[in-house]
Fold this sequence. Notes:
This protein has 184 residues and is mainly alpha-helical. The chain has helices at 11-34, 46-71, 83-112, 136-168, 173-178; strands spanning 118-120, 124-126. The chain has a single domain, classed as Transmembrane di-heme cytochromes, Chain C (Fumarate Reductase Cytochrome B subunit), CATH 1.20.950.
Amino acid sequence: MIKNSTTRFGLLSRSIHWLSALLVLSLFAVGLWMQGLDYYHDWYRTAPDLHRSFGIVLMLLTVARLVWYRFSPKPKPLSGHSRIERIVSVAVHHSLMLLLFVMFISGYLITTAKGDPLYFFNLFGIPSTVNGIANLEDIAGDIHKYVAFFIIGFVVLHVAGALKHHFIDKDLTLKRMLGLDKNA
Length: 184
């Protein structure tokens, strides 16, 4: 089943979720690793190019996720979830979406601050629209770095919530996102 139902996540939602998770964690790890590269390292130029390109892939997936949920709404929350759990869940999801868009914008500004285009796997360039602002690259870089840590914090909350539901509450929350909820 491609589309979501009232009780289950469809294949497309699950695929976007897990691919996005893989990209977020990979981009974070590569971003940390890149900070330690010196000018003469073999990956000094290649790693940032790949980081930017996969960041664009994540942005496209995030936009696709938001559009998809307009056509195929999320399943209803499980009945055993308390009101506070539902509120926290929505807050964490919305925070992640907002912070991801802050990352996309700040990443774009880091790259294009001096008028250079942002290249997507060297296939085409996305032109700079904002340049000539003093210290823009540094300001956007600081925002990008700190927001990355906030995203990881929210990812940890998200994973902790899923594990709590699976191991303590023993409900179908995690199984629904894994596609293993045959009884839902």
